[in-house]
Design goal:
CATH topology of one domain: TATA-Binding Protein
Number of helices: 15
Radius of gyration: 19 Å
Shape: globular
Number of strands: 7
Order of helices and strands: EHEEEEHHHHHEEHHHHHHHHH
Structural class: alpha+beta
CATH superfamily of one domain: DNA-3-methyladenine glycosylase AlkA, N-terminal domain
Strand content: 5-15%
Length: 299
Amino acid sequence: MQRRFEVTGPLNLRWTLRLMTLWGATTWLKVDDSGAWYARRTPDGPGTVHIRHKGDHLLVDGFGDGAERVLDAVPALCGLDDAGVDAIEPVHPFIAEQKKRMRGLRQGRTGDVFPRLVVAGLAQKVTKANSGPVAKRIAWQWGEQAPGPREDLRLLPAPRDLARRPYYAFHQLGIERHRADLVKRIADRASALQRAAKMPPREGRAHLEKLRGIGPWTSGVVMSGPLGDPDAVPIGDYHLPNWVAWNLAGEARADDARMMELLAPYAGRRGQVARMVKGSGSGAPRYGPKRAAIDVRKM
């Protein structure tokens, strides 16, 4: 199947979708020189799309039984209905600079809660080395190859298959019991959690946080990706308050309250501004030792 979508205004497809790959952990979303590749499960079966940005159009090829449904989701995925950074009125020179640098960055939306929630759950209170790789191991060990020509495009197991795995099976993938139990709860309640996609942002976050183990950081990560809320900020992030405070106020350390104070002028787009800050690569100074990455498979 093939589709062609008109693009109005600037679109940086790489920026828009790479910010949704969650530390490179999303084996079902790849962005490289060939374009963007996205796969998901649908009621008709798995589907994959290959997206290329050519001039003022997106050219999209679909693969698999679920291709038509995934093709229908491409405009939202690429933020074609979103003004992106053009909607941000910079009140700080740094944001004005980033707005120029990231021209074409838009707010995408997949509408698919389960995969993002699994990756975010695995990233709770651990280093990057303890989060991204283990999510990939789940996809490669228990998932399946997505339709289409790319062998490295992998889907997570279906929720029911992941929910039935005993917690100790996760240990061999480097996942301790606390995170394994959370992933199993997410999988077991996947259908109920998906309802957040049809709720207003505030209600959607509250709905997600009803599940034990999901707090404001995890719900913020989910709302800012699959649910497309440009105002969603992950509260409780280990580094983000320091990044925001350093770039907007010259302060090396900050808490969530200070971060939200600095982001207040951008209400409605606070999450997008926070991602612009982090995407700049201008991190706050680091003090003290780094957090250790622990491989539970060796314990």
